Amino acid sequence: MSRGPVGAPDVVILGGGAAGLSLAYRLLETAVATVTVVEPPDGPARPAERTWCYWDQSDDDTDGFGEAVTATWPLLRVHDRDGSPLTVDPAPARYRMVRSAAFERLVHARLARSPGGRLLRATADTVRDVPGGAEVSCTRPGGRPLTLRARLVFDSRPLRALPPARTQLLQHFRGWFVRTRTDRFDPAVADLMDFRVPQPRHGLAFGYVLPLAPDRALVEYTEFSKSPLTTAAYEAALGHYAREVLRLGEFAVDTAEQGVIPMTDARFPRRTGTAVFRIGTAGGATRPATGYTFAAVQRHSRAVAAAVRDGRATVPAPHGRRALAMDAVLLRALDTGRIDGPAFFTGLFRRTPTHRLLRFLDGATSLREEWGIGLRTPVGPMLRTALEVPFLPRRTHPAPGTGENPR
User: Fold this and answer.
1) Pick from 284, 310, 336: which residue ends a domain?
2) pLDDT digits (tens, 9 = 90+) for 128-146
């Protein structure tokens, strides 16, 4: 592998979120490159602590991230609108929670003890190609300028505007970390979708409960719709869900988190220069129809590290074309109201073996398996939508703001 100027890193990663830190971890793990991670200094530019969840089938304690895992659930549950619960066992997979602060500590420690790793607190301003690589202009705390050169730059910073899309919904949420006076939660069961909440006129809404102990949990209200709510509206929805649906009794809210993420069939450019690539949500890692990102980021980080190791001039896409095509159809069907969102997702869990459904949501199923899953959905509306989508124009949609889905 050719290297940049003497003293310069092989790779500069912009942004210290899930995507940036995961790629740094994989590059250092395989010792394929020297790495500098550029993170914003302490202050308003640094995001608040976030929660990332995903299912994982590895037996080696979440692929090296074990010490950053806050909780694990062996069982998953979905509630239909009529209150009917469906509990499924996704074995050998388990659902896992990672808190961003713990994940940062893990990767920062890896950077600190690696001779090829460096963490730099600065604001990345501009990135441009230069002979032999790319150049990043930064501002250090106090206003001091700094220029970094590297053979490759991977940029995970949020986009200022989204690419044109045929369909764009938003997955927006607010969650409370609650502590109840008495035991109210089953620590073995994660409630992925609880549709016993009032449904919006357009889109869908559900509750989401991740128990941390019999008396502690993350309780969240989530919507798939065109625009986010006010904080007061989220608080009202959460209060109704916690008190009237979950019947938690007396409880206290320790902390809260809130965010929004686009669910879009936009085409995200992965390359913005000869030596500059986008990763994470900015590079299309978020699964359009579900908002799940963390698991895709892990797969993509390993693939990018392999590309760097092999000296390839391009990096692979985070998701396959077939998965993105199916997501585009589902987004359009939800947006037009041709399918009932709560019934659709509940039906998927009722009619599809859980291990196969989770692999489908991760984009790891075969064409034959996907055909079988498709036959378990509303065939007429989905077929009509599939025939329509290729002819729809791509339009610019308003930027959704910032935030990261906890899944």
Assistant:
1) 310
2) 999 999 999 999 998 999 9
